[in-house]
């Protein structure tokens, strides 16, 4: 039986400031409100973790060292940062109820934390610097230890500065307890890549946010028509029909990869003709959404963001940064069949291949007809009965506005406050949250430590932790406040978050 988890949103026990990419607590002078917060080291956090304990559960030991590395990415040799010298990092595989004990060594020249994206874990293990833990200093180490309560597709990545836009990420797969091992189950991490190709992510952020040095008509880092990585090209005509609008990505990338491999030299997965394969699609990119299709036929979506949905067939899926989709495909026969991740609104793409028997690999620019077929929408998705939230009265109803623009590059979240606390909640409450996008760009909004359910006129929506909010649009979600602590809520566009589009979720005692 799957444990039901829910989502919870924002709260600021203090004002959250973004200073040179570092989250800082600035106490608002409201001591009574601050004293009412459930801190990461509180008894409530410990008690909630103890309640997740499963008899007979294993402890999964993992050692991760973050360090500079020279790796092959997309057919190029690049200098980047990686876990254990590999891109992507090692896949962690466990069973629901297992305890993950990850010893993380920081051999980078700057501080580090790791966020376990999508996991309803104990608050003091969530990996947000200065909110849930102190950063891991260079040369130091930290042991993350927590229960993995829910089966599903998740991933891990840094939560410090622009580090996600390097090679520091890996899949975290949690299987059902007492379930048969899948015969063909492939995690696929989609990524946009710039590190080691002439710019670092920090230089890209500087180019996006700085107007200094423009006396010669250029920004720092401008290269071949792009400003510090800023995408200044005309949108591809296909973007005109995108549900994300026409202003889709603000960074121009030279490479797009799946599991660290570009379309020119794709990873090849041996399969059998007629075999059903589970593909776990994870968008680990920092700025680019992908439209994904299988060249061998339709896909059946069976889960999103780790939680199951009623199976639905589609030709193509649009996946924003931080989102995950589990899809089933059937290998139609002998041959080599492409899984293509096309850059939404652009002409580039990444590819991986399912190979059954002999056959030449598809061309790097192959475009399956499925990419132009039925596009999955959130309205097509319905949570299965075992994970759908029960119908309940809403205790808190908050509306938050997403703000900012490309020219000032000053992104933010305007949310209501009560006594110095932004959108406070208490354990056991049902909370309704509406994201209102008052900008000309789309934003993939991610809540830590919880999973919410989308609310629409279509009935029971999917359970998710990351949701795309189109420009000028609004999205409403509900969650149960069942995981006490202080939780980050932010745009999963790395550069938007670093420029200010983040706030906190705070439980009150």
Structure notes:
- The protein is globular and about 65 Å long.
- Mean pLDDT is 88; it is low at 1-32, 211-228 and 230-240.
- It has 509 residues and is mostly beta strands.
- It has 3 domains: 15-46 and 385-508, Immunoglobulin-like (Sandwich); 59-182, Cupredoxins -  blue copper proteins (Immunoglobulin-like, Sandwich); 255-379, Immunoglobulin-like (Sandwich).
- It is 6% helix and 40% strand.
- Strands 12-11-14-19-16-17 form a 6-stranded mixed β-sheet, with no helix packed on it.
- It is built from 4 helices and 34 strands.
Describe the structure concisely for a colleague.
The protein is 6% helix and 40% strand. It is mainly beta and 509 residues long. A hairpin with a 5-residue loop joins strand 20 and strand 21.
How many β-strand runs?
34
Largest sheet: 6 strands, mixed
* Percent of sequence in beta strands: 35-45%
The total count of helices amounts to 4
In CATH, the topology of the largest domain is named Immunoglobulin-like
Quickly give the CATH architecture of the largest domain: Sandwich
Number of domains: 3
CATH superfamily of the largest domain: Cupredoxins -  blue copper proteins
- Fraction of residues in helix: under 10%
List the uncertain runs.
1-32, 211-228, 230-240
**Global geometry:** globular
The pLDDT mean sits at 88
Going by helix content, strand content and strand pairing, the class is mainly beta
- Strand order of the biggest β-sheet: 12-11-14-19-16-17
Radius of gyration: 22 Å
CATH class of the largest domain: Mainly Beta
Determine the N-to-C terminus distance: 30 Å
């Amino acid at each position: 039986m799957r444990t039901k988890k829910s989502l919870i949103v924002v709260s600021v026990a203090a004002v959250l400031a973004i200073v040179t990419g570092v989250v800082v607590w600035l106490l608002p002078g409201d001591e009574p409100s601050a004293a009412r917060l459930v801190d990461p080291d509180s008894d409530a956090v410990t008690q909630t973790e103890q309640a997740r304990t499963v008899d007979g559960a294993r402890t999964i030991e993992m050692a991760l060292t973050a360090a500079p590395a020279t790796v092959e990415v997309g057919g190029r040799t690049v200098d980047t940062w990686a876990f254990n010298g590999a891109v992507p990092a090692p896949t962690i595989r466990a069973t629901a109820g297992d305890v993950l004990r990850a010893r993380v060594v920081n051999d980078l020249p700057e501080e580090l934390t790791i966020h376990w994206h999508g996991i309803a874990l104990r608050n003091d293990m969530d990996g947000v610097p200065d909110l849930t833990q102190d950063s891991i200093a260079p040369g130091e180490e930290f042991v993350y230890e927590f229960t993995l309560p829910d089966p599903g597709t998740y991933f891990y990545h840094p939560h410090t500065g622009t580090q996600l836009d390097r090679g520091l990420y890996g899949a975290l797969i949690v299987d059902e307890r007492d379930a048969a091992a899948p015969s063909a189950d492939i995690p696929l991490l989609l990524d946009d890549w710039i590190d080691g190709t002439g710019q670092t992510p920090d230089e890209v952020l500087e180019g996006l946010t700085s107007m200094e040095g423009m006396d010669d008509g250029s920004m720092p880092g401008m290269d071949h028509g792009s400003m510090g990585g800023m995408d200044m090209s005309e949108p591809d005509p296909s973007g005109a029909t995108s549900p994300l609008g026409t202003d889709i990505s603000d960074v121009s990338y030279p490479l797009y990869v799946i599991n660290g491999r570009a379309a020119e030299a794709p990873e090849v997965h041996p399969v059998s003709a007629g075999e059903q394969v589970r593909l776990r699609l994870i968008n680990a990119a920092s700025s680019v959404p992908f439209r994904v299709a299988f060249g061998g036929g339709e896909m059946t979506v069976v889960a999103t963001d780790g939680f199951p949905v009623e199976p639905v067939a589609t030709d193509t899926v649009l996946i924003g940064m931080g989102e995950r989709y589990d899809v089933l495909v059937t290998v139609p026969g002998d041959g080599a069949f492409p899984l293509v991740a096309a850059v939404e609104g652009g002409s580039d793409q990444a590819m991986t291949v399912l190979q059954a028997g002999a056959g030449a690999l598809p061309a790097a620019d192959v475009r399956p007809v499925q990419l132009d077929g039925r596009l999955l929408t959130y309205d097509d998705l319905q949570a299965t009965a075992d994970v759908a939230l029960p119908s309940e009265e809403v205790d808190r109803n908050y509306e938050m506005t997403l703000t900012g623009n490309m020219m000032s590059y000053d992104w933010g979240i305007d949310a209501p406050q009560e006594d110095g606390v932004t959108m406070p909640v208490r354990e056991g409450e049902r909370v309704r949250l509406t994201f209102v996008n008052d900008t000309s760009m789309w934003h993939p909004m991610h809540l830590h430590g919880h999973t919410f359910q989308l609310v629409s006129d279509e009935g029971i929506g999917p359970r998710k932790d990351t949701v795309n909010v189109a420009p000028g649009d609004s999205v409403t979600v509900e969650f149960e406040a069942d995981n006490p602590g202080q939780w980050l809520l932010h745009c999963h566009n790395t550069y938007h978050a670093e420029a200010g589009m983040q706030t906190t979720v705070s439980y009150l005692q």
